[in-house]
Design goal:
By secondary structure, the protein is α+β, with helices and mostly antiparallel strands. The protein is built from four helices and nine strands. The radius of gyration is 13 Å and the shape is globular. Strands 1-2-3-9-8-5 form a six-stranded antiparallel β-sheet. A three-stranded antiparallel β-sheet has the order 4-6-7. Strand 2 and strand 3 form a beta hairpin.
Length: about 130
């Protein structure tokens, strides 16, 4: 599993793209998708709602369990991925591409977001 270098990651296993026009894309990592198993339902935040870094803003339901979705940043949701709502398996098959979850106009980004290498070390238990 390779985590894209251009993304940043939270310890709750979400990824965040660099902001384009102040808007970043959020998804869950391949590591998280594999741990969840086959995702069968997603509940995403509503467009126009405010999400807060580190707080739950939705749910992912799989054949194994239900897991909270945490926002890696604070800001206003500008778009949700309707393709994932209609076909939740995209979270498993394309975590870093078509399986993105929502876009957010970032107002605050926490300092503790990880680089790809730091996240890989964290998620494999090799963090020092």
């Amino acid at each position: 599993m390779s985590n894209p270098q251009q993304l940043r990651y939270s310890k709750e296993h979400e990824w965040l793209s660099d902001a384009e026009g102040g808007v970043s894309t959020v998804g869950i990592t391949e590591h998280a998708a594999n741990a969840l198993g086959d995702v069968v339902f997603v509940q995403l935040p509503e467009v126009g709602s405010t999400v807060t870094a580190g707080e739950s803003c939705g749910e992912l339901e799989s054949t194994k369990s239900v897991s909270d979705l945490y926002s890696p940043v604070t800001g206003e949701v500008t778009e949700v991925n309707e393709d994932v709502v209609n076909d939740p398996s995209l979270v498993n098959s394309a975590s870093f591409e078509g399986g993105w979850l929502f876009k957010v106009r970032v107002s605050e980004e926490p300092a503790e977001l990880l680089s790809a290498d730091e996240y890989t070390a964290f998620s494999t238990g090799e963090e020092s």
